[in-house]
Specification:
The structure is a homodimer. Chain A is an alpha/beta fold. Chains A, B: Residues 420-500 form the PEP-utilising enzyme mobile domain.
Chain lengths: 880, 880
Amino acid sequence: MSKKVTLFHEGSADMKSLLGGKGANLAEMTRVGLPVPPGFTITTQACLEYYEQGRQLIAERKAEILEALSRLEEQTGKTLGNPENPLLVSVRSGAVISMPGMMDTVLNLGLNDETVEGLSKLTENPRFAYDCYRRFIQMYGDVVLGIQHYRFERIIDQRKEAKGAKLDTELSAEDWQWVIERFKQLIREETGTDFPQDPREQLYGAVVAVFDSWNNQRAKIYRKIHKIPDDLGTAVNVQMMVFGNMGEDSGTGVAFTRNPSTGEKELYGEYLINAQGEDVVAGIRTPEPIAALAERMPEIFEQFQEICGKLEAHYRDMQDVEFTVERGNLYILQTRSGKRTAHAAVKIAVDLAMEGLIDQKEALKRVDPNQLDQILHRRIDPEAKLEILTKGLPASPGAASGLIVFDADKAERWANEGRPVILVRPETTPEDIHGIVAAQGVLTNRGGMTSHAAVVARGMGKPCICGCEKAKIDLRKKEMKVGDTVVREGERLSIDGGTGQVIQGEVPLIDPELSAEFQQLLTWADEVRRLKVRTNADNPHDTAKAREFGAEGVGLCRTEHMFMEADRVPLVREMILAESFEERQSALANLLPLQKEDFKGIFRAMEGLPVTIRLLDPPLHEFLPNLEELIAEVTKLSVTQSGSRELLQKENVLRKVRSLHEFNPMLGHRGCRLGLIYPEIYAMQVEAIFRAATETMEEGITVCPEIMIPLVGHVNELREMRKLVNEVADRVEAETGQPVPYTVGTMIEVPRAALTANEIAKEADFFSFGTNDLTQTTFGYSRDDAEGKFLHQYIDQKILPENPFISLDTEGVGQLVAMGVEKGRQTKPALKTGICGEHGGEKSSIRFCHQAGLDYVSCSPFRVPLARLAAAQAALQDEK
Amino acid sequence: MSKKVTLFHEGSADMKSLLGGKGANLAEMTRVGLPVPPGFTITTQACLEYYEQGRQLIAERKAEILEALSRLEEQTGKTLGNPENPLLVSVRSGAVISMPGMMDTVLNLGLNDETVEGLSKLTENPRFAYDCYRRFIQMYGDVVLGIQHYRFERIIDQRKEAKGAKLDTELSAEDWQWVIERFKQLIREETGTDFPQDPREQLYGAVVAVFDSWNNQRAKIYRKIHKIPDDLGTAVNVQMMVFGNMGEDSGTGVAFTRNPSTGEKELYGEYLINAQGEDVVAGIRTPEPIAALAERMPEIFEQFQEICGKLEAHYRDMQDVEFTVERGNLYILQTRSGKRTAHAAVKIAVDLAMEGLIDQKEALKRVDPNQLDQILHRRIDPEAKLEILTKGLPASPGAASGLIVFDADKAERWANEGRPVILVRPETTPEDIHGIVAAQGVLTNRGGMTSHAAVVARGMGKPCICGCEKAKIDLRKKEMKVGDTVVREGERLSIDGGTGQVIQGEVPLIDPELSAEFQQLLTWADEVRRLKVRTNADNPHDTAKAREFGAEGVGLCRTEHMFMEADRVPLVREMILAESFEERQSALANLLPLQKEDFKGIFRAMEGLPVTIRLLDPPLHEFLPNLEELIAEVTKLSVTQSGSRELLQKENVLRKVRSLHEFNPMLGHRGCRLGLIYPEIYAMQVEAIFRAATETMEEGITVCPEIMIPLVGHVNELREMRKLVNEVADRVEAETGQPVPYTVGTMIEVPRAALTANEIAKEADFFSFGTNDLTQTTFGYSRDDAEGKFLHQYIDQKILPENPFISLDTEGVGQLVAMGVEKGRQTKPALKTGICGEHGGEKSSIRFCHQAGLDYVSCSPFRVPLARLAAAQAALQDEK
């Protein structure tokens, strides 16, 4: 059996999986000669063994720990439990993947009734010694013995009250002795045994407690959120204590080697004189900014600066460093890559590359595309004067503005009618999903950052504020009250999910912009990536924004969004409710010029680049009034106004809505199935495209329309629709004399299309994988139903590793994508292939698209930068 | 260029694709020395050439026809257009696949004002000659010149009226001459030219007319119905006329060499003395049974019998023979394999094998499994005394009994509540599909055999009567009136779709039974087939029937059908509406003994054979009241009885129904997704299975339960559910001490399951392909919506070659099935695989299952014999 306990100087950074992140770092720092207090690491293997043995620390392991301890004693010249020269140690967790604050720590271990006396004598500071001892008992009591923290605090409070003291620092050595006795009494009462005086027993207890903390509730939740496997286990680091609280020549602090918020190259952090690390964290005393240390301890500051430089050079990244000064000696307790905002991540990566510490490719790898989502959201114009109503928890970033609505059904209906809404609920449940999908943003007055609304909104990239407790919501009256202000259904509300601000009325939103460093990074990305990046955009504004962000074309222009605009809905309804072909034709003729103008705007914005336009996709009843509401209205009218004209009219509409009603609209009469049964609708759209193209070309603008037929499952469908497109194109050309270059392709979004891609490719110039629908049909999941009814539980219970609507299911759906590409190219080697589902803007899915050999991904405008970076990272992974 | 016109004696039976069925037969009969009037065939190639040339008979072809004509003139010693000894010919179509009555024929061609005189002299029968001539003009006018038949008939009627004659036979030679003049005048008026006197022109005209008739409306429809390709073209047979109407020593007839209705070995047919073939068909004179010929023309009869024997021996099948006797000489005009009922087909195939004409394998190939559907339906007990209300068109065979319902929605609801219904509508439209699906049978008072109701019902194998015009349907009053009898909604009605009989009240139905010959044939089939045949059955009666029909196990026992029974629905609703886990448990505890008894009955009926039981599959809201109805009720109550207790209760139910409501239930919370979220439901079902098995085993009966988890898409789902099954099995065994042998498997019914079958097989003992759902998800079709909204048009327009819900889409869905089998066996070579969708009882799908290497197919009980035969045919095809 291999060694399961190693001293710091025996390890190195590459032993992370064994030593954990912290242990490997301590070892590495020791190895390169930094002033690290000595110690040893009990490896993750020992932790796994502990669990295998049914939560038992076996004798062999105990022996190994004692062996390491005795070597530590040699190194330090101190001995655990020796009153003459006591060794005190910290016992800390250290997982392979950092889980800050999730697991337990015990400090000052080794103190007992005897060694505390020794410490008192050695330091000539009895108050310090008893303070250390009471801190140790308190932590040990909490962490190892499971007695709640507040019960110890209450004893200290009693003493402070008795002494009329406000701060801990006002208590004397005697006070602490009194406190210690009461602490020991509490432990005796609670556990039935005395506080352990044997330092070895203390040590075993602390090690076991740290192992156990791997499976405490918050650690498990943290792992789930951050997708960290449960079977890694944690290492335990036993390290000589150093004390920042030994007087005015001592102190402790935390610093980042660069500003973690902006990325600026400056030491950033804070410190406290005469304090232990926990004092900094606890926030009882206000720490000073790290820059102030330059005056307070100029030599130490200089040494620290130098060490920070060394650390950055060694780790080639911005570091988050914990240090302690014990009686004028600087110790580095920990260093790790510092967490940073997306902004800082970009700047630091680019700066490090500019400084020559890393190369450009490394800089590209340093930024997590998923994190960029933070800065690629609309935000409130900082110039705007805001009427801030209240604040809640900033649960999902981005800002939104819309009409307030108090139930999900109405949110969906209003949104379908083209009205932007903010869904306001006491809290959301899975039954509200369709409302969240429809809304611009969500506000709840209950629930925290991990509430249903928060999780779902983040998943969808929608702004969300949770736990906005000051907003009193009255669902019956349909109003929200904040103090004396009442906001009623239909009134305008704005939210900033990044700050938690709730604002009455509309506020100007501005699009995100790219910093110079971000631009630089993306330029490097463009040099590396093979995948092209396009955008999903349905209007000129989004198209222009996407192009500014580097989009290389429109991958998906959904024409139905154009039908949804308020002024079009009556025309669209007229078209659908038409009783004859002629009536339908006349409604279509009115829609044509509107559609044409839409297309012209998009062609202009994408000048010279391809624009893929998908013909009408959703079932027609989506444009009609809601069936259930109609039933209620008709029933009511038939009781109250039997025989009235209004009733007759409504009954007529109800009849039509019923006739278009579907059991499973997702699998119903939509996509090219509409185009085949009502070719006049597609013909109108195609005519609008070609007229728009012709007119735009007359402006001297190059136009590259790619016409996309949705939901093809059999090559014959595409063949028929392609014929229709060609006929209309020929007709328009005959009339205008202006040929328009165009291609015709299809969405691959039902499994049969991928399975028969070799056939379908005969009629297609391009394939665009509609992975949203393909995921629905491949799994047999209706997204609307699944996310509300079982999908979250599936992910919680690890039935599925990920939400397949967010991260492409490479095993199943991906197999169809790969098959589609391969079979399609067998028939037509030059076939252009892309992806236009939401996965087109998600890191791991983009990586898959790269591997599957697609030509491009297409995503929402704000995700284009993210996709450019992710595509570059995917290409870099090939180089390995 | 190859020869496109051949004389009969130059051809043979194996030239069918060139000569057409009729031409090849004439050639073959000529070749084997039968008395066939000589002639020649213009090949299908010439027809295709005609269409390629834009409907032109090119000069080269005309020359070839004349060349053949002159050889025919040599053979017969007669000459076309020669008044001295005129050759008269028939010109008939002859497609490769017989399309009886669909295309055109011209008889007596060669007659003109001169040759008719010659014929008159030669036959010494002026009346006969002029009758022939007028017949020719009439047919030519109709077929070649496009003048409607009735306009000629009207002229004849005028003459008959003038003469006070009732029958054609009462008209004299002079009368016919008068008629002929008027016919020629009609033609002149209608076409602007004279009736052509040049026999060559007549011949070209007739050939072209036959070619054109390939694309007449009824031929096109016939091809669509019978799935005959449009690009085969027809041959044209030009044959010397022989006349059965030359006096009492002449005659004509049609006979089958065996009884086409029963299959008995006896000449079956009819003849007319002194008549032409069309007289037999027209039904003006009543023909005599063929047996009577033995007395009338004993020598001819003997000769004919002998020829029939030769023909059967030569063609090794029952023949349908047309013959003519001209002045004591027997001519055979046509022979072909005779159409026969399913009963006859079975008997003839077995008899021919017994007689040594064909071997057993050939006998198996001779019966079309699809035809067997005719005899494998429930029918009305012949002993029953029936109150026959009225009769309609027998549009889809089988008998059914149920409650009369006048709209599709209600039909569906009542059926869901376990009440059998007969859907009665004036006519059905695609919007009624769900009602047809739900109903036991369908009755309409409009529409014919090809109406929507008829086509859909036949497709689904449901009894249907159409065009029942005496039934007056009042949709508002919800009643049907026949004479004075009124049948109201909810009253019992029975229909026999095989006879068209509508019967008031309930009638006893009896299951089909297998004749001795059918049993024999199936025994032969069993010796040949590799595929096992199981049945889909949910109750002991169906299970027993299926076993009687040779089922080798239950392939699919749908447990939800047990939930639908009237006495269970309240319990099931209680279980679903439970507000707590405890409430649900208690409802489940009440369901358990009922389910257990169900299983015991099935285990007993399938003693010793495997029974695959699928756990609950449909979404829970299927068991609840209809949402739309509830909304209407609640709206009404809230207007009329605001605040009432009933309103509150209904609102409560509405809330729950709404919360279970799904946008796409087909893709929603069902199958194992239910089992994973509510494991207690599956646990109850599994417990019922194991308790039933234990108790049945105590009766000394061998039980082989196979527990099937529905809708698995990821191996983890199956892993969890398998654990649950094992736990319950262990628990029951611990309690009873009786181990039950069992296996656990899954349905493969979403594409992802097939794509990841290698993973899923790790947890599965068997795969059962649920091709209904797999078709829905692979195509992205909701069957309920597609069949109503676009699928029929897709098939009409040939976007899809077949309805994929009836005949397995081998290209797409089949690819997934084959992949599932292959990948599953990679992981687990002994994996058992079967199919349990409706395709399991369809011939071509069964063939695919055989080829894909499945172990079994499973189908409804009455289709088991069909499947046994189809499986044998599939195996025989391998031998080729």
